[in-house]
Amino acid sequence: MRYWIETGAQKSGRNLTSTDVAALNYLDGLMHNPENMFQTTLGRGDMLLVSNHTIAHNRTAYTDHSEVDKKRLLVRMWIHTDR
């Protein structure tokens, strides 16, 4: 998240204030605290649904299979709801 915020500020020609940086540092601390993390491994046929409005999420790196029939298939879907 921090990368996108800092990049957006830079591209818009705005500097982050010391309060902005302190808030990002605080958020980084929360997000890197293992007590606030959930990790899982998805298997064949598994599905994970998350809300971008309430959850900060990321993926770890992986090495895909070289065989075409074993390659990972990632499908993203954006669903709009009226909360």
Summarize it.
With 83 residues, the protein is mainly alpha-helical. It has two helices and no strands. The protein is elongated and about 50 Å long.
Number of strands: 0
Helix content range: 25-40%
Outline type: elongated
CA radius of gyration: 17 Å
Portion of residues in beta strands equals under 5%
Order of helices and strands: HH
- Main beta-sheet strand count, sense and barrel state: none
Structural class: mainly alpha
Count the domains. Answer: 1
Q: Could you tell me the mean pLDDT? A: 89
Count of helical regions: 2
Distance between the termini: 23 Å
Task: List low-confidence stretches.
Answer: none
Report on the structure:
By secondary structure, the chain is mainly alpha-helical. The protein has one domain (2-70). It is 29% helix and 0% strand. The longest helix is centred in the N-terminal third of the chain and has 14 residues, at 18-31. The mean pLDDT is 89.
